Amino acid sequence: MKTFSIAIHGGAGTLVKGMMTPELEAQYKAALKGALDAGYYLLENGGTALDAVEASVKVLEDSPLFNAGKGSVFTATESHEMDASIMDGKTLNAGAVSLITGIKNPVCLARDVMEKSEHVFLAGEGAMQFAKELNYKLEDASYFYDEFRHNQWLEIKDTDSFQLDHSTKKDSKFGTVGAVACDQEGNIAAATSTGGMTNKKWGRVGDSPMIGAGNYANNKTCAISCTGSGEFFIRGVVAYDVACLMEHKGMSVKEASEEVINKRILEIGGDGGLIAVDAKGNIAMPFNTEGMYRGQKSSIGIDEVSIYG
Fold first, then answer.
1. At what angle do helices 106-116 and 124-133 cross, to 10 degrees?
2. In this structure, are residues 146 and 195 in contact, taking their beta carbons and an 8 Å threshold?
């Protein structure tokens, strides 16, 4: 049997150690472990990589600790605009949604775009119309309300500031979520979901829903989910860049991931990290921030969750 594995992240950048209490750290690690185990359980029982990444991301979206789904940050208008994407490395099919509100699990809508529409990317009102046609339940705004997130927003509302969850400007650092997996058939997949940035304006979209920037999967190379300063990850086409280095330079998933995160993205001023897996189940999780909420589990005995470097 082939090696099967899964990796997840809950965002790059971390709460400064002084603010991270032992109780809070235990909550984060428990949430990461729950997401990791949900995806791994499917892989262990012969499930697909696609099902596994969706399952893991759903668990993270349902936790208020991460900036996705329930824990999404507030925009300049005190609302929530969520983005998500998913990609199947076997077929190169992909689905993505952006600027959606009221959807409990954006990753599920992204998968429905991939499987139930002729398109890859739906945004805003159109994406919401698509969700309604599929009878998605719209959650009340109170479902997404989190006091900590709201206080983050109150600090900078009515200003031109915006805040990436892991930015150095604040100690309040949380982020995007994602998962990558390799199943028993050697197929790989990736999924990413985010609530964007606090106090964002004008329908800003980051890298998370962009195929090739924040999310990518191709059985020939790797599956990638990114987290970090989205503007730079878009400019660097980060997820696809890793795959390109593997395909055209013959690098391993670890070498390619580290080249992009520790060199290429830094050269243009970006910070963050990514998780990656290849079709042999090898995992890489580089980051150039103080930490990255992350976990990995595989059939060769790896099973760990970590926060700091």
1. 80
2. no
Burial environment of residue 308 by CB neighbours within 10 A (0 to 12, 13 to 18, 19 or more): exposed
Residue 83's DSSP bridge partners are 194
Cα gap 106→103, rounded to integer Å: 6
* Euclidean distance between CA atoms 186 and 272, whole angstroms: 28
Q: Which residues are catalytic, by number?
A: 176
Q: Which of 7, 100, 272, 161 is nearest to 113 (CA)?
A: 100
Domains and CATH numbers, the chain: 5-301 (3.60.20.30)
pLDDT of residue 269: 94
Q: Which residues pair with 308 in a beta bridge?
A: 291
What pLDDT score was predicted for residue 152?
A: 82
Query: ∠ CA(206), CA(88), CA(186), 5° rounding?
Result: 130
CB–CB of 298/39 below 8 Å? no
For the segment 15-71, what is each residue's pLDDT rounded down to a tens digit? 666 677 889 999 999 999 999 999 999 999 999 999 999 999 999 999 999 999 999
Percent of the chain with pLDDT over 90: 80
Please tell me whether residue 295 adopts helix, strand or coil conformation: strand
| pLDDT-based confidence at residue 146 (cuts at 50, 70, 90) | confident
Decide: helix, strand or coil at residue 228: strand
Taking a C-beta distance cutoff of 8 angstroms, is the pair 179, 6 a contact?
A: yes
| pLDDT of 14 strictly over 50 | yes
